[in-house]
Design goal:
The chain is of the alpha/beta class. The protein is built from five helices and eleven strands. It folds into two domains: about 90 residues, Translation factors (Elongation Factor Tu (Ef-tu), domain 3); about 120 residues, Nucleotide-binding domain of ferredoxin-NADP reductase (FNR) module (Rossmann fold). The longest helix has 13 residues. The radius of gyration is 18 Å and the shape is globular. The chain binds flavin-adenine dinucleotide. Flavin-adenine dinucleotide binds next to strand 4 and strand 5.
Length: about 240
């Protein structure tokens, strides 16, 4: 992997009140695998730099690079990327990085169970977009845990893509549910996960991503449900 490369923000798209997608132009960008991330470095006028990792949101079939950043109010870099940066601004990019938390189409067509918490949906969305773009028939299922419908990144696109017979999307809302949801908000637990994931005997490969406590809890529920540890791939965002 080479070092830092100069890049330019091509466009900024609002996803929720807290999250923006940045489409980034990197000269000579060679593409990526679904699930990989890049390091993004920003530079202040006085030369101070800070870098953070961001999962790639775009499909592996596309030649463009996009990342989706959720603002942490007390954070150093994410408020800048969400509230300040604008088309035409410069960034530095390193990567793509990651060879384990990736989905590549394969002949076995093992079912794929995705579990995301908050912005942890981003690399899972890259997998879903790649699966859709290839018209791959591997059974995919996403369990997306989020506080409220308004904070659900990619909600409209996920609702639309869930019409694909090879993709099921299950939602878990912890603070506020959509109108007419028919159940109160609740935190995920083992019973809820059991009803929203492929059973262990399906041979599914699981990808779990989000803040560290969420990932640890979700991976433990999958173990309780009988998933072999080697079939659970995790990406921890910190926190
Ligand atoms: C491989 C990888 C991929 C990532 N992909 C994404 C992505 O696609 N979208 C995205 O929004 N973020 C992603 N992150 C998280 C991102 O790298 C930053 O950690 C995040 O944007 C916060 O940076 P900050 O500078 O604003 O906060 P900081 O100044 O670094 O931290 C501020 C405070 O928030 C806490 N904190 C840091 N990260 C988290 C977190 N994720 N959840 C809760 N608390 C946290 C810190 O402990 C600290 O107290 C990814 C992280 C990794 C390791």
């Amino acid at each position: 992997m080479s070092g830092w490369r100069q890049a330019v923000v091509a466009s900024v798209t609002c996803e929720t009140a807290n999250a923006r997608t940045l489409q980034i132009e990197v000269p000579g960008w060679e593409g990526h695998a679904a699930g990989q991330h890049v390091d993004v470095r920003v530079r202040a006028e006085d030369g101070y730099t800070a870098s953070r990792s961001y999962s790639i949101a775009s499909s592996a079939s596309s030649t463009s690079l996009s990342v989706t950043v959720d603002r942490l109010d007390d954070g150093e870099v994410s408020p800048y990327l969400v509230d300040v940066i604008a088309p035409g601004d410069h960034l530095e990019i390193r990567g793509p990085t990651g060879g384990w938390f990736v989905w590549r189409p394969n002949a076995e067509q093992r079912p794929v169970q995705l579990i995301g918490g908050g912005s942890g949906v981003v690399p899972l969305m890259s997998m879903i977009r790649s699966h859709g773009d290839l018209a791959d028939t591997t059974p995919f299922r996403l369990l997306y845990a989020v506080r409220s419908p308004g904070l659900a990144i990619f909600r409209q696109e996920l609702l639309r893509r869930a019409a694909d017979p090879d993709l099921a999307v299950d939602w878990a809302f912890s603070r506020e549910t959509p109108e007419g949801w028919g159940a109160p908000p609740s935190r995920l637990d083992l019973a809820a996960v059991r009803s929203a994931v492929f059973p262990a005997d399906s041979g599914a490969l699981a990808y779990v991503c989000g803040a560290t406590p969420f990932v640890e809890a979700a991976a433990n529920w999958l173990l309780d449900l009988g998933y072999p540890p080697t079939d659970i791939r995790t990406e921890r965002y910190g926190g």
